[in-house]
Amino acid sequence: MYHNILDEPFNEDSLVYTVSLNNFKQTVDLVTKRDVWIDTYQNVYKYIRERNAVKHSIATSTDEQFSFISDDGLNDSIFDAQVTLKIKLPAFLSGDSVTVSKGDYKKNVKVISTSGSNYIYYNTVPNRTPISISKKVNTSINAISSKSDKVEGIQFYASPNPFLDYTLLKVEGEIHAGMCVVIRDISGRTVQPLTKFDGIELRVDRAKLGAGIYIVQLFDFGSVVATLKLIAL
Fold first, then answer.
1. In terms of CATH architecture, what is 141-232?
2. 3-class SS at 34?
3. The pTM of the whole model exceeds 0.85
């Protein structure tokens, strides 16, 4: 599914949009210069329904953090797509990043400053679970777990871990087409670039890494949703 095609005349007889090749070329040229999302009609439809229906309300607010609730009023068993929230931060959250918590899941998110105000972008399913934003917490290598990392609706882990020959990165729960992983060493150097999840697990061979400690990041539609520590013996 796509939209934003330039000059889309609607044919009422055929109930479809038609577009000239020239206008289509202009649209393609524009698309190649920006980030795009390509997905099935079903997923795009769910996203649009949620985006248009979602409402936010403040749950709690203190001098250290605040929390809010996002609710689209829809059936969560069907409408489970993530929407992107642009959140304006209060003055006391003035660092370069903040910690966003939802249930058991915590994530450090970069702060963006625009026109004298601070914002973050955060992807979430608007399912009425409170979301808290506070000052950044420690996410050093020692603070990252080598066990499963809980994320909204999924579980991400490696088995075995530590490992000698190979390990399997596994995702349990709902798997999205946009899920990928990146493996980095403790200095931050990428040792395995963005690799797509084609199923529920991904094999990592010890011979390609060498002995050491590695950080595995799980991406969903371009955002890091889980991180775990991997130990190669």
1. Sandwich (2.60)
2. coil
3. no
